[in-house]
Design goal:
The protein is mostly beta strands. The chain has 2 helices and 25 strands. The strands form 6 sheets. The protein has a 5-stranded antiparallel beta sheet, with no helix packed on it. The chain starts with a strand and ends with a strand.
Length: 381
């Protein structure tokens, strides 16, 4: 079923768009700053707690992860189970997470996955693995191997982050590793929590990393002082950006540079959920400052940089999936190392994932149970 998203929303429509559940502990985002373009919205399929998706070459098939541990293949008509997915520690924010294609997927058939993995006792941590996707008949994964783990595993079920992206040249795998709601590991170089990591495709630390001389997990680290990264993406000029959840306020869009410290938990532009203040970024200039921040939050799900032909006026902009009320799809213009929000397109539900298809259409996954996969395109006429 296809319906237009109108260029102007009535007060009632804005109210209804804001009535979805908010992220626990997060304030609702303000009303949309601008809604100036229309979509045609087509419901394609439904999933149970989807978390990530990626298109296969040609754009007629896609892989979708569900938090409970299922990997799905949408083949353009039906949704199929993919056998051989890893066992996950499901609960809270944990489960099956990211899915991306290897840079040489057309030749190798390899994909990369991330998930929450159980440890000893009540500990858990994110893991990254790779496997060959075999299609034809019953789709399946072959040769799944774990290539990276969060260290150490800790208690709790939050802030895994575990977003993945390859560098534009395909030589390096970047991994977002959250602080696991433990705060101080983000500044501890003996742990790889609260960091962005640069690895080789086999999971080994990439040569030339800024802290390689320290050895251990520090050799993996590209940047530190991060909280809970839910988006990791390269812009069309080759710059790496992340989006991370702040505490009560202070969501951040960061230009991620090697060796930089982004300050968490020493500084934030939000406060603790119990109301205790956190020193602001402006008080500690030695820490890298966010390119853009949000208070109230948008609670990002993930982010892409749009490069398609269907919406040419958006090329080069970041398109952000928003989980907070009234966030929907948030558009951000990036100019060099600066960024500014230019528009919001409220949606009916929280948006977990946003992707661009080869034809330039924008695809969304709603958050939660019975969540829709939606295709956004230019309306006819």
């Amino acid at each position: 079923m296809t319906k237009p998203l109108l260029t102007a929303l009535s007060p009632l429509a804005l109210f209804l768009a804001s009535c979805g559940p908010s992220v626990a502990g997060d304030s609702p985002a303000p009303p949309a700053s601008e809604v100036k373009d229309a979509f045609a919205i087509t419901e394609v399929a439904k999933f149970n707690e989807p978390w990530a998706m990626t298109f296969l070459p040609g754009g007629k098939e896609a892989l979708i992860t569900e938090k409970s541990g299922k990997l799905k293949l949408w083949d353009g008509a039906a949704v199929l189970d993919v056998a051989g997915a890893p066992t996950v520690a499901y609960g809270g924010q944990g489960g099956l997470g990211e899915v991306i294609l290897a840079p040489d997927f057309a030749r190798s058939g390899m994909i990369y996955l991330s998930w929450a993995e159980a440890g000893d006792g009540e500990t858990r941590g994110a893991a990254v693995g790779r496997a060959k996707l075999v299609r034809g008949g019953v789709p399946r994964l072959e040769g799944l191997e774990v290539i990276w783990r969060q260290a150490p595993k800790v208690t709790g079920r939050g802030h895994y982050s575990h977003r993945l992206t390859f560098s534009p040249d395909g030589r390096h795998l970047f991994v977002a590793s959250g602080d696991r709601q433990k705060f101080t590991p983000a500044q501890d170089m003996a742990q790889n929590l609260g960091k962005v990591l640069r690895l080789l495709p086999d999971g080994k630390p990439a040569p030339g990393n800024p802290f390689a001389a320290q050895g251990g997990v520090a050799a993996e680290v590209w940047s530190l002082g991060h909280r809970n990264i839910l988006a990791l993406a390269f812009d069309p000029t080759g710059k790496l950006w992340d989006l991370e959840h702040g505490p009560a306020g202070g969501d951040e869009l960061n230009l991620v540079k090697p060796g930089q410290n982004y300050g968490w938990p020493e500084v934030s532009d939000g406060d603790h959920y119990d109301g205790r203040a956190i020193p602001r970024h402006a008080t500690r200039p030695e820490f890298a400052k966010a390119a853009l921040g949000w208070t109230p939050v948008i609670a990002p799900g993930n982010m892409i940089f749009y490069t398609g032909k269907m919406f040419p006026q958006w090329r080069g902009q970041a398109l952000i999936a928003g989980l907070a009320k009234n966030s929907g799809v948030v558009r951000v213009a990036v100019d060099g190392e600066t960024a500014r929000e230019v528009a919001r397109h409220p949606m009916d539900k929280r948006i977990r994932e946003i992707e661009q298809a080869p034809d330039g259409a924008i695809w969304l996954l709603e958050d939660g149970k019975d969540a829709r996969m939606l295709r956004l395109s230019k309306p006819k006429g």
